[in-house]
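Try this one yourself first.
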């Protein structure tokens, strides 16, 4: 958790897209658990951001979200919302945008309340490799080890 002005950001995830179900639940698609891996550069990658937290005092708020690197370009997005009570929970979804990575390096998502003082919310390595399957060392347990223990009677 970190603070930007009166916003305490608790969770932040970088993914390919964030969608809303009919039930108003959010679906996070293509979450980047570690690095952003591409086969070549320049590479266009769809990115969206999910963040949640809380605001201490009620009122209208404006926050700035900046994407930067690797390469020269930077993009600043404005997030505006209104809270009506103290310590109100807020959810921010920055919609999907196609970002072009010119080279390997560091990609940052930074947050600011005034566009002067920036705090890094998300930082990912952009890695270029032709062997995309080797770049995702996700360990899955065999199905026999994934089942939940049987409920015990009391």
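Now uncover the answer:
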């Amino acid at each position: 958790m970190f603070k930007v002005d009166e916003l305490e950001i608790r969770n932040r995830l970088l993914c390919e897209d964030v969608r809303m179900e009919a039930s108003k639940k959010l679906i996070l698609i293509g979450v980047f658990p570690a690095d952003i891996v591409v086969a070549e550069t320049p590479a266009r990658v769809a990115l969206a951001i999910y963040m949640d937290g809380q605001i201490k005092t009620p009122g209208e708020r404006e926050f700035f979200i900046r994407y930067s690197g690797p390469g020269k370009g930077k993009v600043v997005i404005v997030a505006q919302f209104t809270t009506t009570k103290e310590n109100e929970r807020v959810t921010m979804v920055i919609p999907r945008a196609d970002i072009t990575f010119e080279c390997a390096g560091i990609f940052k998502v930074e947050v600011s309340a005034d566009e002067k003082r920036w705090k890094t919310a998300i930082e990912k390595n952009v890695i270029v490799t032709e062997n995309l399957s080797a770049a995702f060392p996700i360990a899955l347990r065999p199905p026999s080890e994934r089942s939940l223990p049987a409920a015990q009677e009391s």
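Discussion: The longest strand covers residues 88-101. The chain has one domain: 2-133.
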